[in-house]
Amino acid sequence: MILVTGGAGFLGSNFVLDWLAQCDEPVTNLDKLTYAGNPENLASLAGNAGHRFIQGDIADTELVAGLLSAHKTRAIVNFAAESHVDRSIHGPEDFVQTNIVGTFRLLEAARAYWNKLEAEERKAFRFLHVSTDEVYGSLDKEDPAFTETRRYEPNSPYSASKAASDHLVRAYHHTYGLPVLTTNCSNNYGPYHFPEKLIPLVIHNALAGKSLPIYGDGQQIRDWLYVKDHCSAIRRVLEAGRAGETYNIGGCNEKPNLEVVHLLCAILDELKPGADGRSYKEQIVYVTDRPGHDRRYAIDAGKIERELGWRPAETFETGLRKTVQWYLDNQAWVRNVTSGAYREWVGKNYQDRK
After folding, report:
1. 335, burial (CB in 10 Å: exposed 0-12, middle 13-18, buried 19+)
2. How far apart are CA 309 and CA 326, in angstroms?
3. Backbone dihedral region for residue 6 (phi beyond 0: left; psi -120 to 50: alpha; all else: beta)
4. In which region does residue 271 sit, left (phi positive, over 0), alpha (psi from -120 to 50) or beta (all else)?
């Protein structure tokens, strides 16, 4: 079996659902169930013998060691992370504890388990660490896209904590020989995305008749990756990636934030027109930019295409339409996750952004 950490969050739950739809290999799913971990994401797996959910922390070395030993684990796929830049600005310590200390303890448990395996099992074992393009810093408009050899220049507590975790993973390969893989992805979007990130926040606010906040001038550029394409890339890296290597995963869709919001409004105007006949674009407001906001991210995904034959299946337009339709079809899920705690967070993050 494989052990997936953070498997009730946005990326992790999509990966678990996708994995079990693609193959018969069982999954043990370990998630701490913080604000972004949601058991509802996995509701369709109720009664599925191939899925075992454990609530727990990757920093609990004893728990992780027991799970690895009990189920003849052949791979760990580590999604567990604090992952929102704005939250890292308000409370960086959680990011240090989960992304750095948690990854360290997970690596220690993996190393101890791997050292006890027979030779062939040791050779086949993999530790796949899921990271972000934000570790590379920010690009100017004319700069070439991030490659795997780009120098790390993290600019937020979030990206700094992820950069540290990447370095630990690399060190455990070079020092101890642990067969690791690292993936650095661009901005994901799709089903089960917690509505604090741009795309689900805009959909949620638009339908609720609330303002659609745009940081600064809205010209921050991101490369957008549909989450199911990301899942297929991780499966491919786990299957055929070279131990010790890093693979950048991108959607080949660089878009300014303002253009993304305009596209979302146009799709909503078509699929769920407002009762008053006005475009959702009229709800756009510009708010004070967040501190240290990186201007542009762009992924060069040439390595994963050359070595592993992977390319994204979705264009931004097809993926975005699927995403909007999913949120329209799953309003009960949205209502359940946008609880009092969520409203308190949104109020805290935007209260001073006039």
Report:
1. exposed
2. 29
3. left
4. alpha
* Tally of CB atoms within 10 A around 117: 16
Q: List active site positions.
A: 133-134, 158
User: pTM above the 0.85 mark?
Assistant: yes
Could you tell me which residues are beta bridge partners of residue 146? 299
Please report the domains of the chain, with CATH numbers, ordered by start residue. Answer: 2-189+225-252+293-313 (3.40.50.720)
To which residue do tokens 């052949």 refer?
Answer: 74
CA 258 to the chain's CA centroid: 21
Both tokens of residue 127?
Answer: 């530790």
Structure tokens at 216: 């600064």
Question: What whole-number distance in Å separates Cα of residue 153 and Cα of residue 145?
Answer: 14
Pairing state between β 254-256 and 221-226: antiparallel
Residue 79 DSSP one-character state: -
pLDDT digits (tens, 9 = 90+) for 176-193: 999 999 999 999 999 999
CA dist 1 and 219 (Å) reads 44
C-beta atoms surrounding 123 within 10 Å: 10
Q: Is 208 exposed, middle or buried (0-12, 13-18, 19+ CB in 10 A)?
A: exposed
Task: Indicate the helix (H) or strand (E) that contains 109.
Answer: helix 103-115
Q: What is the pLDDT of residues 323-350, one digit of tens each?
A: 999 999 999 999 888 875 544 534 554 4
Please give the Cα distance from 228 to 193 (Å, whole number).
12
Q: What does the alpha-carbon distance between residue 324 and residue 329 come to, in Å, rounded to a whole number?
A: 9
Residue 80 Rama label (left phi>0; alpha psi -120 to 50; beta): beta
User: Do 38 and 7 contact (CB within 8 A), yes or no?
Assistant: no
Query: In the prediction, which pLDDT does 88 show?
Result: 74
